[in-house]
Amino acid sequence: MTNPSLPAWLPLSVLTWIVVMVVFHGFGYVFEICDRAGLFKSSKVRRSDTLTYAQLLPRALFNQVFVLLPAMVLVQWLGWAFTGTAHLGIWRFIALLAGMAIGHDIVQYVTHRYLLHDPRLMRILGHSVHHTTGASKAISALYMAPADFFLEIVLPYLLPLVVLGGGGGDILFHLLVAGLGAFGGLYEHSGYDFAEPLRRSNFYKSVPWLGAVVETLTTSKAHGQHHTRGMVSFSDGFGSPGLCDTVFATRWDKVKERQPQRTRPQRAQESAPQEHAPQ
């Protein structure tokens, strides 16, 4: 059963995809304007990308049009998602939102850590393409090889949705889940961390518990650390519960940073016999 408020020519999966495109590219360009105009300088904590917005855009569009859209249409055509009751009850609505957050965390952690960061598969699946970015331009969130995009973006979104019953045909539920996911990906790759000024504020010092809550909800540090250090925070990011990273102790603040290794010339110099000055 499809939502009766939608015309027959507009499947709910397609409407949801359109909203994803509007949110992603709308906010993506807002972040780009902020970069160009130098706005919110106190919150811009990463500036490490060499590719321009125009260079990042084609890959993002390709993945959205040729990977995400067909996958969403397919699961609706199969009757696995985007179909059913037109309006979810309030408690089911909330339970499904929580279930989606947890399910997304689990699926993304498994694919990201055990497939995409497996040294034998990282290049084959193309995850190395995404790691050529420094997570400092919002649109780099979808600068990925198609296989990487499917495993890290599409599967963590659609698999929990299907397992939890497809979300019915509730338009608000689907638009909220997809819209928040699109914005979260943009923010954690934008290079902005709006918790940074908060950490230095009197408010943070005077009401530490509330400041800590606000910081947790607004920080993008986890995914920035993933791009910097690699083997940390596989699913812990903006809008994510960080469940698996916490349970398996791979959260960025639970993993000790590796000490920089000394260069070979230094070791060679240290091991070489010392010349003594003439007596």
TrEMBL record:
<feature type="transmembrane region" description="Helical">
    <location>
        <begin position="12"/>
        <end position="35"/>
    </location>
</feature>
<keyword id="KW-0472">Membrane</keyword>
<dbReference type="GO" id="GO:0005506">
    <property type="term" value="F:iron ion binding"/>
</dbReference>
<dbReference type="GO" id="GO:0016020">
    <property type="term" value="C:membrane"/>
</dbReference>
<keyword id="KW-0812">Transmembrane</keyword>
<dbReference type="Pfam" id="PF04116">
    <property type="entry name" value="FA_hydroxylase"/>
</dbReference>
<dbReference type="GO" id="GO:0008610">
    <property type="term" value="P:lipid biosynthetic process"/>
</dbReference>
<keyword id="KW-1133">Transmembrane helix</keyword>
<feature type="transmembrane region" description="Helical">
    <location>
        <begin position="90"/>
        <end position="110"/>
    </location>
</feature>
<feature type="region of interest" description="Disordered">
    <location>
        <begin position="255"/>
        <end position="279"/>
    </location>
</feature>
<dbReference type="InterPro" id="IPR006694">
    <property type="entry name" value="Fatty_acid_hydroxylase"/>
</dbReference>
<dbReference type="GO" id="GO:0016491">
    <property type="term" value="F:oxidoreductase activity"/>
</dbReference>
<feature type="transmembrane region" description="Helical">
    <location>
        <begin position="56"/>
        <end position="78"/>
    </location>
</feature>
<feature type="domain" description="Fatty acid hydroxylase">
    <location>
        <begin position="99"/>
        <end position="250"/>
    </location>
</feature>
<dbReference type="InterPro" id="IPR050307">
    <property type="entry name" value="Sterol_Desaturase_Related"/>
</dbReference>
<protein>
    <submittedName>
        <fullName>Sterol desaturase/sphingolipid hydroxylase (Fatty acid hydroxylase superfamily)</fullName>
    </submittedName>
</protein>
